[in-house]
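Attaching the record inline, Q. Sequence:
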Amino acid sequence: MAKAYREGKTWSFRLRVKGQDIYRTGFSTEAAANQAQAEIRQASAQSAQPSGSGPFCTSLGRAFMQYAKERLPSLKGADKDANRINRYLRPLGLPTIQLEKLDAAAGSTIYWKVSFVGKTERVIPNSLKTHRAKLEEQSSASQRQRAALASMNMSDVTSHHIQQC
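Structure, as predicted:
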């Protein structure tokens, strides 16, 4: 534990918690400074822990699935986000997001029911097959990059990886 020290007419302390340097001053007594240190340490110990298995063991695809469970029900535009996220989930063979619109009750902030469905084949009408094949050919590089990105651990993803997509 860092020791409180006298600084002019007040007591101060310098503390490092989880790599963060904390400096506080202006305490009338040493006991008050020590009490403030204890409160900071306790708040830090109770602060948010990594979600799931943490960034070193969670792939981007799994993180997207967690995000979908937690946030998509309360977003009005969740259907668009679900389509974007599914582009990352499909190449990994992970279950894709399926949304069901809920009847909006007065004052309700839940708009969607989120569920995950196993790997399903997308049915493309015959009239669109040539057009879709052309589009897929044009976006094949982006699809490969999305697949690589989705399989990376969250701790390894950096801005230059995302800019490539």
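The mean pLDDT is 87. The chain has two domains: 5-45, 60-163.

More tomorrow.
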